[in-house]
Design brief:
By secondary structure, this protein is mainly alpha-helical. The chain has one domain: Helicase, Ruva Protein, domain 3 (Orthogonal Bundle), CATH 1.10.8. 53% of the residues lie in helices and 3% in strands. The chain contains 6 helices and 2 strands, in the order H-H-H-H-E-E-H-H. The chain has a two-stranded antiparallel sheet with strand order 1-2. The radius of gyration is 13 Å and the shape is globular. It holds the Pfam family DUF2200. InterPro entries: SP1917_dom_sf, UCP033199. This is DUF2200 domain-containing protein.
Length: 115
């Protein structure tokens, strides 16, 4: 597994960027939390704990209680890369999360985002 710089990025630094992105498009922090919890299986308290502990992305996904089985249905392009074609498992999880946040920011219905 390649050691990408993003794996060491603090989730607590990335999370506010996700929130800012969706709030610019009139979506809410609660919706961001909902898609993150759906993908990872974290409860709201568990998500908050990861933010407070300043976990890096590798730890954030390694400690995820239960990655949603329907995450495999997430398809599309993020930053010019097809998420379903990403070989590295951790990078794929990160891209899944990016894709969900992108869909939220683009105004897609939450029911459709949560496949």
């Amino acid at each position: 597994m390649a050691d990408h710089r993003i794996f060491k990025a603090k989730f607590s630094k990335i999370y506010p960027l996700y929130v800012q992105k969706v709030e610019r498009k009139n979506r809410t922090r609660e919706e961001v939390d909902q898609v993150i919890c759906w993908l990872t299986g974290y409860s709201q308290a568990g998500l908050q704990r990861q933010i407070e502990e300043e976990s890096d992305l590798a730890t954030f996904f390694a400690e995820a209680p239960a990655l949603h089985p329907n995450r495999l249905l997430i398809k599309g392009v993020v930053c010019g890369v097809r998420v379903e074609e990403v070989d590295d498992p951790l990078m794929r999880q990160i891209r899944y999360l990016d894709k969900l946040v992108d869909e939220l920011a683009k105004g897609r219905a939450i029911e459709k985002i949560l496949r």
